Amino acid sequence: MLQAAPARELLRQMLRIRRFEEACAQLYGAGRIRGFLHLCIGQEAVAAGAVPALRDDDSVLATYREHGHALARGVPMGAVMAEMFGQREGCSRGRGGSMHLFDAGRRFYGGNAIVAGALPVAAGFALAERLRGSDRIAACLFGEGAMAEGEFHEAANLAVLWRLPLLLLCENNLYAMGTALERSQSQTDLAAKARAYRMSALSVDGMNVCAVREAVQRAAAQVRGGEGPAFVELRTYRFRAHSMFDPELYRTKAEVEQWKQRCPIAAFERHVAALGLAVDAAAVEAEVAAEVEAAIAFAEAGTPEPVADLLRDVTAEDAA
Amino acid sequence: MRTTYRDALRQGLRAALRADERVFLMGEDVGRYGGTYAVSQGLLEEFGEARVRDTPLSESGFVGAGIGAAINGMRPIVEVMTVNFSLLALDQIVNNAATLRHMSGGQVGVPVVIRMGTGAGRQLAAQHSHSLEVWYAHVPGLRVLAPATLEDARGMLLAALRCADPVILFEHALLLNAEGELEGEPAPVDIDHAAVRRAGRDVSLVTYGGSLPRCLAAADALAAEGIDAEVLDLRTLRPLDREAVAASVRRTRRVVVVDEGWKTCGLAAEIMASVVELAFFELDAPPARVCSAEVPVPYARHLEEAALPSVARIVRAVREGVGR
Fold first, then answer.
1. For residue A89, which of A141, B6, B48, B200 sits 20 to 30 Å off, Cα-Cα?
2. Which among A104, A151, A316 is the nearest to B61, CB-wise?
3. Where are the alpha helices (DSSP H) in A137-208?
């Protein structure tokens, strides 16, 4: 049964992601953020439910739509915003931008902009844990589009064959950029695809933060127990365009509106109210607004990396 | 001790596996089969299945896994059977191994060693005969090594494992049976500098990997004609030891670059450009190159031979450059 304190935390994490990204969209319009910016608005329940269900010493690898994952992992919002601004104070020293957020101290390993590219790497993280005999796991978040790529299949095969402690978290938002799932994959039952590799797989409502958290907690425990990899499909929806350059010709406004009725934050607030939990949503909003404001101020006050340091961190010898 | 290049590679692998618990070897048929070129024969028996891992046929998958394991504290040696198959792992090598340190602002290092066979000369046709070292040498963030001697075959792997960055090792298939004397215990060798394999005064033959024996044979043939050729083995293809190339050219005032890769946009072109940039006014003749013909390497023996840099072609190129 959900208690008030964890409920407040789930709400706070989802709101942090939503408000942070709304600010990013505005700052993009103002020209403060450039490059690609992929917002996960609508998908907050995935990051807020799944990422905190992992242990601090587990490893997390994510896609290029990873602001939410990074924030939920505890990467400071100011460092994420400073990265968007391309500042030295950014979590990747301005070398990565929106798509490549890193925080090795929190075992958050990006931020990978090649669809499915992080999956074999995550299998390698898990392999290292298996070779050391630790009980740490590696979790990889990826979109359903990745399941059309060979790298998903290669990583899944390896992980089962070698019983790797790998948690595969598929964020199914129904569109690979603009291509609908049924137009790009012959088997649209994603869990069935994973099961074909003989790993345990389930699908959950990715708009329901409690369902996400519970499923990921269970799957993580199972993986940690040495059973090999597990797969969780999180069914969700992206409310905003794919990136800032997307006229959204591939889906109807009615479809988007229908999904917005299932907004994970509003749904959770209703749930909390129905349970009669003492969660002061307004206070959480105010707290989050202050955090976003401080993050922007931190990024604004940041310093650009000197051009003299352009070549640093290409190899270990180049580290300043 | 009388040793082959293949045995020298194995000695390096065995020493690496013995020296560091974090080191493991994985790749297609490295275990029970003993390695497609018999390089890893006996290692499975000595080190067990956890550390000598047969992988499925999924180059992208297991190269990526090597990258992840390296970031996460291990020291994997990934064997991709040949450079031809490494193209299936190009995404992992170029988009992940080479970029992660920089994209993470220096937080993530990828100390993975990726070994692969390379080169033509065994009538295996186009898909098993590529020399694509330059593709990898093009990419910042990678270190690219080409052992051409027994000592380098044994010691470059050990040096590569000390490197905090991804290292690609090219082992030319025609060198595997090369024999010679190899003394001492396996130890890391220098991987920052080119090496003069034969000193000479009249012309510099700049080469690497499988073309080194050809250049040495050509130098012998040229000596009989009174042309004293210096042979410079690049050894490391990235970062290039440009200064060693320039220094050799300053001594000999003539240069012929020998590279089994194709001529267009190849390593030879890069070496020649370096010569022009660093030693243009020291040259007595235009730089020349001997590369593979611009054709997918053909199967038939006479055609394959015609396509590759041969001792005769190297000798001819030197004669023309020297004006004899």
1. A141
2. A151
3. 150-161, 181-184, 190-195
Q: Return residues 160-179 of A near B (CB < 8 Å).
A: 161-162
pLDDT at A319: 59
Closest to B237 in 3D by CA, of B271, B275, B272: B271
Residues contacting B76, CB < 8 A, separation 6+: A124, B23, B24, B25, B26, B65, B66, B69, B70, B112, B113
- State both tokens at A15: 């709101």
Long-range contacts of B38-45 (CB under 8 A, 24+ apart): B38/B6, B39/B6, B39/B9, B39/B10, B39/B13, B39/B79, B39/B171, B39/B176, B40/B10, B40/B13, B40/B79, B41/B10, B42/B10, B43/B10, B43/B13, B43/B14, B43/B17
Tell me the catalytic residues of B: 59, 128
SS3 B51: coil
Between CA A242 and CA A40 the distance in angstroms is: 9
**Residue numbers in B near A131 (CB within 8 A):** 24, 50-51, 69, 74
Question: pLDDT for A100-135, tens place per residue?
Answer: 999 999 999 999 999 999 999 999 999 999 999 999
Q: Which helix (H) or strand (E) holds B53?
A: strand B52-54
Q: Quick check: B243 and B206 in contact, CB under 8 A?
A: no
Question: Could you read off the pLDDT of B37-53 as tens digits, one per residue?
Answer: 999 999 999 999 999 99
DSSP letter for each residue of A250-278: TS-HHHHHHHHTT-HHHHHHHHHHHHT--
Distance from the B238 Cα atom to the nearest Cα atom in chain A, whole angstroms: 12
Beta carbons of B62 and A150 less than 8 Å apart: no
Show residues of chain B in contact with A91, CB under 8 Å.
105
Other CB atoms within 10 Å distance of the CB of residue B281: 5
Beta-carbon separation of B64 and A93 below 8 A: no
pTM above 0.90, yes or no: yes
Compare CB distances from B61 to A94, A100, A120 and report the shortest one's residue.
A120
CA-based nearest residue in chain B for residue A100: B103
DSSP E strand boundaries for B119-254? 143-145, 167-172, 179-181, 195-198, 203-207, 229-233, 236-238
Q: What is the ipTM of this complex?
A: 0.96
Distance (Å) of CA A224 to CA A137, A166, B293: 6, 9, 55
Q: Before B239, cis peptide (omega within 30)?
A: yes
Interchain CB distance below 8 Å, B105 and A315: no
The rounded distance, in Å, linking the Cα atoms of B49 and B137 is: 33
Distance from CA of A257 to the nearest CA of B (A): 37
Helix axes A209-222 and A4-29, enclosed angle (nearest 10): 110
Six-digit token pair at B219?
């130098």
Chain A: nearest CA to B319, how far in angstroms?
41
**How far apart (Å, rounded) are the C-alpha atoms in residues B58 and B63?**
8
B247-295 residue pLDDT tens: 999 999 999 999 999 999 999 999 999 999 999 999 999 999 999 999 9
Collect all residues with Cβ–Cβ distance below 8 Å to B100 and sequence separation of at least 6. Answer: A110, B67, B71, B108, B110
